Amino acid sequence: MGDIKDLIMKEGRRNVLMNMLGKGERLDGRDFNEYRPISVQKGVADTAEGSAVAQIGNTKVLAAVKITSATPFPDRPEEGIFITSAEFLQLADPTFEGGPPREDAIELARVVDRGIRSAEIIDTGSFFIEEGKVLALFLDLYVLDNRGNLMDTAGLAAAAALKDTKIPKVEDGQLIMGEVDRDLNPPEIPVPTTFVKIGHYWVVDPLKDEENVADSRLTITTTSKHVCTMQKAQGVLAKEELLNNINISFNIGKDIRKYL
Amino acid sequence: MSKKEEVFKDGKRPDGRANDELRPMKMKVGILSNADGSSYLEWGGNKVICGVYGPREAIPKHSQDPKKSLVKVKYSMSTFASKEEHGRAGPSRRSNEISKVIKEALENMVFTEKYPRTQIDVFVDVLQAEGGTRVASITAAALALADAGIPMKDMCCGVAVGKAGDQIIVDLGKEEDNLGQSDMPLALSNRDKNILLLQMDGLLTLEEIEKAIELAEKASDKIHEMQKKAINSVYTEEPEEVFTM
């Protein structure tokens, strides 16, 4: 950032992108509201209770669900636990560094978490085992390859992993791993849609090059009828732009749900 | 009757406010002697203190931007801020995320290009929390930046809107936040009402979101009036010595 060379390169890249967008073109030839090819593969980790790899273009995120028994939170003694975390593996991007999760990883985990929580698709009320004992569901997101738009890829992987999740049997207050009681069977699929604004243009599913020069970034997560989470990152946003983007994300959500 | 039904019975808000009514607010600037700018905000049961340092040389050096100043925000919640339990000191996942979204709101307002290679530090501490601490923090932070004399494009006003008891309401209190249907913290630039901070959880339709933003726009005007008054008072009134919590 401090390097003047980087700064000039960044401005050059930005100008190229802006000129292209002005002609209605994107770097990879997509429309402004078009996603890269999407694929989802469920059941990739046998040791997990649910797992999936989602891929948007070349961006790849693995989500895995582990279920254990745990002590409930003191303010909710009869409710199960649901925790999401994200790990940016260093092999996924030359700029990722080791150490505890940074801002971006925390934001990613929390936005995916809020989408799932708000859509009310995990019935933590049914996770009660006995006094002082509940089921805890850990949703871990592993970024495997970053070519832009981690948020939507992670959201998709998370939803797919939950669809794949089997809740283990409980007998006499003990969790029996390996024996399945029931499918988690989420009734809704929250789908995050990420937009970036470069100059005057909003585009969905940003590439890394587009993210790097974007003025604004916005993620809208929708279920089939409702908006369930929004998160604005950098930049400014007018009300009309927000409402317009919400409409677009409802339509995109409908398409993306077909992949799950 | 469940707790939820009890809190929202007869369609009234728990503290009897109208749907577009804010909790009482008090603002004051220049309350810290070391900081270049500072503010104190009381908003319902929230008490927030904010100090601004800078523009000063950005460290580490390689983080410096030769074209602009870096706005850095640290939001923290004191260990005794919540009614229920003793919180943990130091940054949490929640506070890290809030610091990030507040930074990404304020950096749009400051003329950062005026101070290349510098950083502007904004420290916000929540001393007492009762729902809506992030919007209280950003409202206080904008005040402290103005108090520091840092040139800004517009004032930034934070307010939460949302849905509780099937009503679209402004400035959610703690119960409405916890037991309500949706919470949407917003920060607006007051003149053109652009959105600087936007988060949301719970379930809302497009129409409800539109209505909620309209409520926030009206609230923003009211908050802005109070911010202006707080800053003006430094130059018009005898400064008070006391800082009562």
Number of domains of chain B: 1
End-to-end separation of chain A: 39 Å
User: Spans of chain A of 5+ residues with little confidence (pLDDT < 50)?
Assistant: none
What's the main sheet of chain A like? Answer: 6 strands, mixed
Q: Major sheet of chain B: size, sense and barrel closure?
A: 5 strands, mixed
* Strand order across the largest sheet of chain B: 1-2-3-5-4
Number of helices of chain A: 5
Mean pLDDT of chain B: 93
By secondary-structure content and strand pairing, the structural class of chain A works out as alpha+beta
The total strand number of chain B stands at 9
The secondary-structure class of chain B comes to alpha+beta
The CATH superfamily label of chain A reads: GHMP Kinase, N-terminal domain
CATH topology of chain A: Ribosomal Protein S5, domain 2
User: What fraction, in percent, of the residue positions of chain A are helical?
Assistant: 25-40%
Q: In the CATH hierarchy, what is the architecture of chain A at level 2?
A: 2-Layer Sandwich
Please identify, by name, the CATH architecture of chain B. Answer: 2-Layer Sandwich
What kind of assembly state do the chains in view correspond to? heterodimer
Taken from the alpha-carbon principal axes, the silhouette of chain B is globular
What is this structure's SSE topology?
The complex is a heterodimer of chains A (260) and B (245).
Chain A lengths: L3 H19 L15 E5 L7 E7 L2 E12 L10 E8 L14 H16 L9 E3 L2 E13 L4 H14 L2 E6 L2 E10 L7 E8 L2 E4 L3 H6 L2 E7 L4 E6 L6 H18 L4
Parallel strand pairs in A: 4-6
Antiparallel strand pairs in A: 1-2, 2-3, 3-6, 5-6, 7-8, 9-10, 9-11, 11-12
Helix pairs in contact in A: 2-3
Chain B lengths: L2 H5 L17 E5 L7 E7 L2 E12 L12 E8 L15 H14 L11 E11 L4 H15 L8 E9 L2 E4 L3 H6 L2 E8 L5 E10 L1 H31 L9
Parallel strand pairs in B: 4-5
Antiparallel strand pairs in B: 1-2, 2-3, 3-5, 6-7, 6-8, 8-9
Helix pairs in contact in B: 2-3, 3-5
